[in-house]
């Protein structure tokens, strides 16, 4: 769909390594700091950025991302400002794909058409909206695809053979395989189950399959990256932000660097993944 | 279905007690998510659930009320979906829950209709029920929806008034949005963030409303009106003193609306009101507010 997304995955395929997909919460703990984090991600080795849209009721997220969203909302973050983050980022980086991730209600209230126009103008490449199942594709998925924005769907271990084609039908950009049932921030699952699942999904689609939920360290990234086209890291990054903050939740001089250091390590893990796989 | 574990969310605790009861009867482990605020103000029901063997997990997110309990129950469910059945209590949540809850709750409406015909030989002129998520209300409304002569009124929690954020009148003072897998009227800000709301009664303290109620409002079949905390408190005391029945704070809202409307109706007109819960769970809350026993 968008040139940036397709080019990035094509380039990575040529390089023979999986993508490192990094999630952070827009506006956590304040606009300027999160813009600093966003700018630091590609330099630290992130290939695709997931930009979290804070929501008051994130029912698919664990405590870490819930709290990140609350910090962002407390810091005055809105959907408009999250789009602004992407615009500001695009002033210096027009190559890294940005996927906005969150819940439908803020978009619905913003207005779907207006949101898609503004997202396109801000340089957004894809959307992950966790509370819109395929049955609701007319709401946002189809309009997004018509405008040229990818709609990335989540598949889980409970997405069986019967359901998988429905989930994949209007998916574009990549498929996000949630490696376990549960919420964000859970433990890493058995790697052999993950590689089996990736193979299963690949029988149904030519899209890249990125795997997330549970990846926290460079070793995790290496293990997951050996069988997937991309490794998604979210909670570990959000936790890195959280531990760098002052007691009252303010950013410190270390906040951006703490994230960059973690991502550098994850990137090393991801980049070494295929060397292992090729052995 | 092969599920061996039950989870539920509860506000006032009535649904939690019901879930704990059925789990005890069938020997299934039961976890009930309940907002921390509600755990405190509905202590008798918490005690009942625990006696029945359920584990009550207080949820501290947000204001610690029904919305937050539902978020946490959904998180448990997606994590343990292999062995767990989520027994949703309110007429909200993702499809087909609102429909299932309505059909189960409609037992009360069907029986009320039958008894009314037996006792009075005709249908009531007015049906009234309190609406939080809206399960008791949709249950009593549903069998009367096609009876054109029956006026139907849903009573929302007006809290401390509709001007600020201290209420739960989703239809009267909210706007359309999407939460917990359904599109309905919600209390939210201009950015689509859900507000916490407030009601004196835990069962009505929910910033959304079952989607079927929103529909019934939009097509004009049911009228939704707010009743303030203090009006519900007055009705609570009135029924207790005049009839010797201690109602729960939730249906006290419906009763307050009945007290407003009855004097304007004919002597032979019939009002059917759903007294959807007993007030022994609320006596400590009410006693505190009225300054009794302190």
Describe this structure in words.
The complex is a heterodimer of chains A (279) and B (294). Chain A contains 13 helices and 9 strands. Chain A is an alpha/beta fold and 279 residues long. The two termini of chain A are 34 Å apart. The mean pLDDT of chain A is 93. By secondary structure, chain B is an alpha/beta fold. Chain B is 41% helix and 18% strand. In chain B, helix 1 runs parallel beside helix 3, helix 5 crosses helix 6 and helix 9 crosses helix 10. Chains A and B meet through helix 5 of A and helix 4 and strand 7 of B.
Summarize the structure.
Chain A is of the alpha/beta class and 279 residues long. Chain A has 13 helices and nine strands. The radius of gyration of chain B is 18 Å and the shape is globular.
Which key terms come to mind for this protein?
heterodimer, A: 279 residues, alpha/beta, nine-stranded parallel beta sheet, 9 strands, B: 294 residues, four-stranded parallel beta sheet, 11 helices, 10 strands, 41% helix, globular
Q: Per DSSP, what share of the residues of chain B sits in E-state strands of 2 or more residues?
A: 15-25%
Mean pLDDT of chain B: 96
| Largest interchain contact | A-B, 26 and 28 residues
Number of helices of chain B: 11
What structural category do the secondary elements of chain B indicate?
alpha/beta
Rounded to the nearest angstrom, the distance between the terminal CA atoms of chain A is 34 Å
Question: Helical region count of chain A?
Answer: 13
Let me know the largest β-sheet of chain B: 4 strands, parallel
Work out the helicity level of chain B: 40-55%
Rg of chain A to the nearest angstrom? Answer: 17 Å
Topology at a glance:
The complex is a heterodimer of chains A (about 280) and B (about 290).
Chain A: H1 3-15, E1 19-25, H2 31-44, E2 48-52, H3 63-74, H4 79-90, E3 98-102, H5 104-110, H6 112-121, E4 126-129, H7 141-147, E5 150-151, E6 154-155, H8 164-168, E7 175-178, H9 191-202, E8 209-212, H10 218-225, E9 230-233, H11 235-244, H12 255-271, H13 273-278
Parallel strand pairs in A: 1-2, 1-9, 2-3, 3-4, 4-5, 6-7, 7-8, 8-9
Helix pairs in contact in A: 2-4, 2-12, 10-12, 11-12
Chain B: E1 5-10, H1 14-26, E2 30-35, H2 36-41, H3 43-51, E3 55-59, H4 66-79, E4 84-86, H5 97-120, E5 126-130, H6 135-141, E6 151-159, H7 170-173, E7 175-179, E8 182-186, H8 211-218, E9 222-228, H9 229-243, H10 249-261, E10 271-273, H11 283-290
Parallel strand pairs in B: 1-2, 1-4, 2-3, 5-6, 5-10, 6-9
Antiparallel strand pairs in B: 7-8
């Amino acid at each position: 769909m968008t040139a940036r997304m397709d080019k990035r995955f094509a380039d990575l395929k040529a390089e023979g390594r999986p993508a490192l997909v990094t999630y952070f919460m827009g506006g956590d703990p304040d606009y300027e700091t999160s813009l600093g984090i966003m700018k630091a991600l590609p330099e630290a080795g992130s290939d695709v950025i997931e930009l979290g849209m804070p929501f008051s009721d994130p029912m698919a997220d664990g405590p870490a991302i819930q709290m990140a969203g609350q910090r962002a909302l407390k810091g005055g973050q809105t959907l408009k400002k999250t789009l602004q983050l992407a615009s500001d980022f695009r002033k210096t980086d027009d190559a890294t794909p940005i996927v906005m991730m969150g819940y439908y209600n803020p978009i619905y209230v913003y207005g779907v058409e207006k949101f898609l126009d503004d997202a396109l103008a801000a340089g957004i490449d894809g959307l992950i909206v966790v509370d819109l199942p395929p049955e609701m594709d007319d709401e946002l998925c189809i309009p997004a695809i018509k405008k040229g924005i990818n709609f990335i769907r989540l598949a889980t271990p409970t997405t069986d053979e019967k359901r998988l084609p429905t989930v994949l039908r209007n998916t574009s950009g990549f498929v996000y395989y949630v490696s376990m049932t549960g919420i964000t921030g859970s433990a890493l699952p058995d790697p052999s189950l993950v590689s089996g699942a990736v193979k299963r999904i690949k029988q149904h689609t030519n899209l890249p399959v990125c795997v997330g939920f549970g990846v926290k360290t460079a070793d995790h990234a290496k293990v997951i990256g050996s069988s997937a086209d991309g490794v998604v890291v979210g909670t570990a990054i959000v936790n890195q932000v959280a531990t760098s903050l002052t007691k009252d939740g303010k950013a410190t001089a270390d906040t951006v660097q703490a994230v960059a250091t973690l991502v550098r390590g994850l990137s090393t893990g991801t980049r070494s993944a295929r060397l292992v796989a090729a052995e | 279905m092969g599920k061996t574990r039950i989870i539920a969310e509860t506000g006032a605790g009535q649904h939690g007690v019901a879930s704990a009861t059925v789990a005890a009867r069938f020997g299934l482990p039961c976890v009930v998510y309940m907002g921390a605020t509600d755990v405190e103000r509905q202590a008798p029901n918490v005690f009942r659930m625990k006696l029945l063997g359920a584990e009550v997990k207080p949820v501290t997110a947000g204001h610690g009320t029904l919305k937050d309990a539902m978020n946490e129950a959904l998180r448990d469910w997606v994590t343990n979906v292999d062995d767990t059945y989520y027994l949703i209590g309110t007429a909200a949540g993702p499809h087909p829950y609102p429909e299932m809850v309505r059909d189960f709750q409609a037992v009360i409406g069907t029986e009320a209709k039958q008894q009314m015909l037996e006792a009075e030989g005709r249908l009531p002129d007015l049906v009234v029920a309190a609406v939080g998520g809206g399960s008791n209300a949709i249950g009593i409304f549903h069998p009367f929806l096609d009876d054109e002569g029956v006026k139907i009124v849903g009573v929302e929690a007006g809290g401390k008034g509709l001007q600020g954020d201290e209420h739960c009148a989703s239809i009267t003072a909210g706007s359309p949005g999407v939460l917990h897998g359904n599109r309905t009227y919600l209390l939210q800000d201009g950015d689509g963030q859900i507000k916490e709301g407030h009601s004196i009664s835990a069962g009505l303290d929910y910033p959304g409303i079952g989607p079927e109620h929103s529909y019934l409002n939009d097509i004009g079949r049911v009228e939704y009106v707010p009743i303030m905390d203090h009006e519900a408190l007055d009705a609570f005391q009135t029924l207790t003193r005049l009839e010797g029945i201690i109602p729960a704070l939730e249906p006290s809202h419906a009763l307050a609306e009945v007290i407003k409307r009855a004097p304007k109706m004919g002597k032979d007109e019939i009002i059917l009101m759903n007294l959807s819960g007993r007030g022994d769970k609320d006596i400590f809350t009410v006693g505190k507010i009225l300054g009794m026993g302190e």
